[in-house]
Prior knowledge:
GNAT family N-acetyltransferase; transferase; acyltransferase activity, transferring groups other than amino-acyl groups; binds coenzyme A; Aminopeptidase; alpha+beta; Bact_Acetyltransf
Amino acid sequence: MEERIRIVRMTGDSPHVATLAAWTHDAWGHLHPGRDVETAIELLRGECGPAGVPSVFAALAGNTPVGTASLVSDDMSDRLDLTPWLASVFVLPAWRGRGIASRLVQRVEEEARTQGHGHFYLYTPDQQPLYRRLGWRDLEERVYRGEAVTIMCREFAIPNTPAG
Ligand SMILES: CC(C)(COP(=O)(O)OP(=O)(O)OC[C@H]1O[C@@H](n2cnc3c(N)ncnc32)[C@H](O)[C@@H]1OP(=O)(O)O)[C@@H](O)C(=O)NCCC(=O)NCCS
């Protein structure tokens, strides 16, 4: 049951980081030719910040990681004008369809929003309906690294800082 799932911030020394990096390297390593899994693990450790950008989260069932999502400053090499990004959303196949990715996305959204980011981006080839349900809107269709993708945007109302 999904109520047993905890969404937890990863620190660089967590034993789970290597597991999460192996999943995302398997899923998206082809987008980074020449990057081996050891390099992917070290890069992910470097993204395990204490708050804000960058941050890495895991969904844990007991103490077993079953999903992950990250908040990073850039995720599309030729769109450095857009920042920050929701990246590396992944749930193990046996745990899909229970709302775990939705909870991970909402946790990363909360992190971006509370750090004062009014706009927040992602790109996806095929998961647009999931993100639309969570309040994201389509921003741009494009081909990126040989794949047709949609850049999507989530906007937050950031409260004005009281004067004085
Ligand atoms: C895409 C992915 C992250 C979704 O993970 P997930 O945990 O299954 O996502 P959710 O459960 O939050 O939502 C998925 C579906 O379950 C449904 N769902 C959500 N909560 C549910 C619940 N409590 N009970 C039953 N179904 C639920 C959602 O409505 C959604 O329906 P859909 O199949 O029509 O889209 C996962 O399939 C994955 O890791 N895929 C490979 C990597 C990938 O494509 N990542 C996204 C890159 S942009």
